[in-house]
Specification:
Largest sheet: 2 strands, antiparallel
Radius of gyration: 22 Å
Number of helices: 16
Oligomer: single chain
Shape: globular
Number of domains: 1
């Protein structure tokens, strides 16, 4: 193989490693929004910290992007839909139910277990209820799990719709722009109808509809889907690297500047539409520019590992913020207080890593093994020795490829097929040397 052909798969893995690392940043942003700010901190710093809820929008866009890379060319047959459903169930439910059981047991022991609310949480439909008392008796961030489950269910329909415009880059870009305009239009309506001024606990408030309502988050998810298709169309072109290198700093600067504006904090614009644009730009930019310094940083092994554990960290961080005394520096910034805060964050991350390794990963493997039993694939015709082409796990390239129903958060994506002398083109898999027929 030529040098270019050898480095192409490595670059592709690097791109998605960076996206896994991005999950860590989004989770830390949400964490910081739940931590009291230091006493006497500058106003702009306080505003940025409180704006960390924008990390949720990044999560939803990233989810659409990654799942599209992995499932866009499938989801056509009942067998493929079942494998996708099992993979999504296995991704979320084992850890979610374990974490949910802890506060539920405490409430049961105290004789205060709300059974109806517990049922809604177990079914993952609590976010459809506008009453905060239904959303927050167990795990505060669990409302977003309810949204994510709904978005998982919409992926086959959204993919089928996007396939209608997928042949032209300009059509994909146009749909992306229209989606952003639609999100902005919805936010504008809530501002000018007065519903943006309603208390978040009000079922008619902008916070409830724009931030927590599953239906309204389809726009974020669709942006991720369209950005993934745009990425697959333009990667490899001379303009791709330059476009990515421009999108990354522009998106970061836009996010920071928007988060520093006190007038936008807790506004209808900030619940979704304001951060949907930089989220899409940053994700697309990191994928297109793997050599950018931020992409390199996010692709480092420790960051990737913590990104893998970010789901556990996101679920448990709220009670740990209270239980471990996070925000101890609220009385002022001193070296001792900063040390306490760093250790507290480290302990919270350690708990998340433990849950990721001991519960999330084995639970995912167990559920997939029980619900998605498939016979081994038959040898490809004309493959000579019968060895199938290699499908690469982008997070674990040195290990055997997992079954498609047990992909690690959808981060096993199709690699570009770049055939060369003696290389057989295999769409969606790594090119392998063509074996002589016997």
């Amino acid at each position: 193989m030529t040098g270019a052909q050898e480095t192409r798969p490595a670059r592709e893995r690097h791109r998605l490693h960076a996206l896994t690392g991005l999950r860590l940043l989004a989770a830390l942003a949400v964490y910081m929004s739940h931590v009291p700010a230091p006493l006497g901190a500058p106003g702009w710093l306080l505003t940025i910290q409180q704006s960390g809820y924008a990390g949720v929008t990044f999560f939803f866009v990233l989810s659409g992007f990654v799942l599209t890379l992995n499932y866009f060319d499938t989801l056509k047959t009942p067998r493929q839909l079942w494998a996708y459903t099992v993979a999504r169930f296995a991704r979320v439910y084992p850890l979610y139910l374990v974490v949910l059981s802890w506060p539920a047991l405490h409430l049961w022991a105290d004789g205060a277990l709300p059974k109806h609310e517990l049922l809604l949480h177990v079914l993952g439909i609590q976010a459809w209820n506008g009453d905060p008392r239904v959303l927050f008796p167990f795990i505060q961030p669990s409302w977003s799990i309810s949204v994510e489950l709904f978005l998982y269910a919409t992926l086959p329909l959204l993919v089928a719709a996007v396939r209608l415009v997928d042949r032209r880059v300009w059509a994909i870009g146009g749909c992306l722009v229209l989606t952003l305009v639609a999100l902005a239009g919805i936010a504008w309506y809530f501002v000018h109808s007065g519903r943006a001024a309603l208390h978040p606990a009000d079922p008619a408030s902008a916070h409830r509809w724009l931030y927590r309502m599953p239906l309204m988050r389809i726009g974020d998810f669709l942006l991720g889907i369209l950005a993934a298709r745009l990425y697959l169309h333009v990667r490899g072109r001379p303009v791709a690297g330059r476009l990515g290198a421009s999108l990354v700093p522009a998106s970061v600067a836009f996010t920071v500047l928007a988060a520093a504006q006190s007038s936008l904090l807790f506004s209808a614009w900030s619940w979704d539409a304001l951060y949907a644009l930089p989220a899409t730009g940053l994700i697309l930019g990191l994928a297109l520019a793997p050599r950018h310094p931020l992409s390199r940083l996010l692709a480092r092994r420790p960051v990737v590992f913590l990104g893998e554990a970010s789901f556990a960290f996101y679920l448990v961080h709220q009670p740990l913020v209270v239980g471990l005394g996070s925000g101890a520096w609220a009385t002022g910034i001193t070296p001792a207080r900063v040390a306490v805060e760093v250790v507290t964050l480290g302990l919270a991350m350690a708990v998340a890593i433990g849950l990721h390794v001991a519960v999330e990963k084995p639970g995912r493997a167990l559920v997939t093994r029980l619900l998605d039993r498939r016979p081994p694939p038959a040898p490809r015709p004309g493959s000579g020795s019968g060895r199938a082409a290699v499908r690469v796990d982008l997070l674990r390239p040195a290990l055997p490829a997992p079954r498609s129903g047990a992909l690690l958060d959808g981060l096993t994506a199709p690699l570009p097929a770049v055939p060369g002398p003696g290389v057989r083109r295999v769409v969606g898999e790594r090119p392998v040397p063509a074996l002589p027929r016997r």
